[in-house]
Design goal:
Blueprint: E1 8-10, E2 16-18, H1 43-68, H2 79-105
Antiparallel strand pairs: 1-2
Length: 120
């Protein structure tokens, strides 16, 4: 669309459309409604993620020691499930702790809203 000096804009079919400046008076908006509130930190979810991370790490270490033979076992078929459970518990804990760390440091693309909150 092209602007002419007479205050008219030529539309797509050549029709003339008038325009006017927006009045500088109050438009009903206030600045506070566009400001973001400070992020709510999900402390319970971060504590749960820390617990999962620690328990998963311990299970992985114990499973690795059982598998390597540093710890004597009477049933060696139970070492692999310890490792599998350790990995399954470790991964969500590590993932959510990583998000919490990056959100606390202010990295772009990370926020506390990405961590599920258990407050009902």
């Amino acid at each position: 669309m092209k602007s002419s000096r007479s205050g008219l804009i030529a539309g797509p079919a050549g029709s003339k459309v008038k325009y006017s400046k927006v009045a500088s008076s109050e438009d009903g908006y206030i600045d506070l409604q566009f400001k973001r509130s400070p992020p709510k930190v999900p402390y319970k979810a971060i504590a749960l993620a820390t617990f999962l991370f620690v328990v998963g790490s311990l299970l992985i270490i114990i499973g690795a020691l059982l598998l390597a033979g540093y710890i004597e076992v009477t049933h060696p078929d139970r070492t692999i499930p310890v490792l599998i459970i350790g990995v399954l518990v470790f991964l969500p804990g590590f993932y959510h702790l990583r998000i919490a760390y990056y959100a606390s440091k202010g990295y772009r693309g990370y926020s506390y809203e990405d961590i599920p909150d258990f407050d009902d």
